[in-house]
Amino acid sequence: MEQLTLRLMLLPLLLLSPLVVSAGGAKLNSSSSLFGIEFPPFNTAVTDTGCDGKLVAAEEEQKQPAAGPPSLKLHMTRRAAADLAAGRTRKDSFLASADKDITRIDTMHRRAARAGAERAASSSPRRALSERLVATVGSGVAVGSGEYLVDVYVGTPPRRFQMIMDTGSDLNWLQCAPCLACFEQRGPVFDPAASSSYRNVTCGDQRCGLVAPPTEAPRACGRPREDPCPYYYWYGDQSNTTGDLALESFTVNLTAPGASRRVDGVVFGCGHSNRGLFHGAAGLLGLGRGPLSFASQLRAVYGHAFSYCLVDHGSDVGSKIVFGEDAVLLAHPQLKYTAFAPAGAPDTFYYVKVKGVLVGGEMLNISSDTWDVGRDGSGGTIVDSGTTLSYFAEPAYRVIRQAFIDRMDKAYPLATGFPVLSPCYNVSGVETPEVPEFSLLFADGAVWDFPAENYFIQLNSEGLMCLAILSTPRSAMSIIGNYQQQNFHVLYDLQNNRLGFAPRRCAEV
Predict the structure, then answer these.
(1) Which of 166, 170, 264, 316 does the annotation list as catalytic?
(2) Nearest-angstrom CA–CA distance, 132 and 305
(3) What is the mean pLDDT of the chain?
(4) How far apart are CA 409 and CA 422, in angstroms?
(5) Do residues 286 and 150 make contact, with C-beta atoms less than 8 angstroms apart?
C-alpha cells in the first residue's frame, strides 16, 4: 500500500521540465501536448480462431498505399495535468506517483515469486499479415498519473476509451456497466448491452483457465457452455479488477492514411468491481508476454514485434505504439539491441540482463549477483511502461547514488529534507545545470546511454534538481521505468528475443 501511494506521487513530477544533455551537462527545457486517436472508417475485420487467444485476419478488401504495407497504430497520451489544475503541486504529484510505483513493484515481485519456475506454454507461430497497427500514445498527465494512455475504440458501434499501456501485466480490461464498485474515470464506462459484438467467454472455454477466479467465491461452472467466466486480477494491496471474461471488437488505426482495422474476438475483462489508483483511465491494455495480453493476441496477425515512443512527461503531444515492424525504426542509425533474459518467473515480464552501470563514464563497483534472477523468481531487471521511475536493487542503488554525489559539481549545494528522492541539489538561478552521464551496460555488450532529463528531475518551484532513481528491497527486481524511457523508440522484438532502443523526439514520430 505504501508503494502504491509513492507511485501516484511521482506523476506530476513528470510534468517538470526535462533536462537536456549538453557537453557533459544538462539543461532545462519545457515542452508538452495531448493528442487523441485519429479514427478513420474501418474496412477490415479480424476474427477469433479458437481458444488459444490468437487472432487471424478476415481478408476483406482494403486499399493499401503503393509505398508499402501499413501498420496497426494506436495513439498514446500521458496523464497528469489535472493535478496541477486541481491545485496540487508538482511535488505532491510526484510523491503520489512514487508511492504507486512502490506498491506496483511489490506486487510484481510477489507475482514472480509465487510463480517460481512455472512458465506459460507458448503456441506455434503463424503467418503474420504484411501490415502494422499503430496507435497514439501520450502522457497521462491530464488524468493525474505517471502512466501513458492508449486510445482504443471498443464495441459495435465503436466507442473511444483511454486505457493505461502496461508492459508489466497481461489482462486487457475496461470498467463495465453495471458498475458495482468503480473508480472515477473520464467519460462513461463500457456498457456491454450497447454493443452488438459483445459476448461472454463461458466457464467451459479453455481461455477461462488463463485467469484466476474471484477470491470471495470459488468459480462454479454448472453449465460449461453457458455460464460466464468470472475473473479476479490484482496489481497491489488495493488495486484489482473483478468481472467477467469476454470477447469484443477493438478498432484501431493502420499506418495507411484513412485506414483502420477492426479486430474481432479480443479477450478482455469486463470489470464490474474495480479499485485502485488508475486515475481517470477507463481500464488497462496489457502488453506483457502472457497469452491474454493485447500484444500476444495480435501476434499471429501482425507478427512478433511491437514498439512505442514515449513523449515527455507532461507533454500534450501524442506519439505512437506500433504493432508490427516499423521500417523507419529498423533503419534508425542509432538503433541498438540487447537480448531478453530468461527468467524463472511468469512470462508476463520483459527481463534484460544488466552487467553494470556507468556514471560519468566510469563502471561502478556493483557485485554481478545483484542482477541475477533467483530460483524463486526474485531479482533480475525488467523494462516496464507502467512504472514511472527507475528502481534498482538496494546494493546497486547505494553505489549509484553515491557515485552521483561524488561526481556532481560542488557548485550545487546538496538539498536535504525532500521526501523520497535523493540526492537533490539546489540549482536556483542556474540556467543549465550539468550532471554526470548515466548508462546501463548489458551482458551482451549493448550500452543504453540516457540523456540527463531521463534520470534527473527539476522542480522549478522548489529550485531543486533530484536524481529520478530509487531503490527496491534486496530481493526485489530492478525496473527500467517509463521516465527513463521517454524520447526513446523502444522495440519489443519477440521473434528474435531482443529489446531495441533508439533516441528519438517522440512527439515528432
Answers:
(1) 166
(2) 10
(3) 77
(4) 16
(5) no
**C-beta neighbour count of 223 within 10 angstroms:** 10
End-to-end C-alpha distance for the chain, whole angstroms = 37
Amino acid at 154: V
pLDDT tens-digit map of 317-375 = 777 899 998 999 999 999 999 999 986 555 789 999 999 999 999 999 999 999 998 87
Nearest C-alpha neighbor of 84 from the set 75, 96, 76 = 96
> Which tops the pLDDT comparison, 35 or 81?
81
Verify whether residue 444 is a known catalytic residue: no
Q: pLDDT tens digit string along 300-311?
A: 888 899 999 998
DSSP E strands in 23-61: the ranges are 25-28, 45-48, 55-58
HEC assignment per residue over 299-329: HHHHCCEEEEECCCCCCCCCEEEEECCCHHH
Cell of 148: 501513458
Cell numbers 495513439 label which residue?
A: 75
CA dihedral 181, 183, 186, 192 (to 10 degrees): -30
Average pLDDT score over residue span 141-163: 79
Sign of the CA dihedral running 502, 506, 508, 509: positive
Give the tens place of pLDDT for each residue, 397-413.
999 999 999 999 999 99
Cβ count within 10 A of residue 331: 9
Residue 436: pLDDT band with limits 50, 70, 90: very high
Rounded to whole angstroms, the Cα distance separating 100 from 107 reads 11
3-state secondary structure 267-302: EEEEEEEEECCCCECCEEEECCCCCCCHHHHHHHHH
Higher pLDDT, 103 or 219: 219
At 58, is the pLDDT very low, low, confident or very high (cuts 50, 70, 90)? very low
Preceding omega of 423 cis (within 30 degrees of 0): yes
pLDDT tens string 470-494:
998 766 789 999 999 999 999 999 9
What the block records as the C-alpha cell of 28 is 532545462
Do the Cβ atoms of 244 and 262 come closer than 8 Å? no
Sheet strands (E) in 159-309: 159-166, 173-175, 199-200, 229-236, 239-254, 260-275, 283-286, 305-309
For strands 229-236 and 354-359, give the pairing: unpaired
Which of 205, 312, 347, 384 is catalytic? The answer is 384
| Residue partners of 34: CB distance under 8 A and separation at least 6 | 77, 78, 81, 138, 139, 141, 142, 315, 316, 317, 318
Residue 463 is predicted with a pLDDT of: 87
Annotation marks residue 369 as catalytic? no
256 closest CA partner among 130, 71, 58: 71
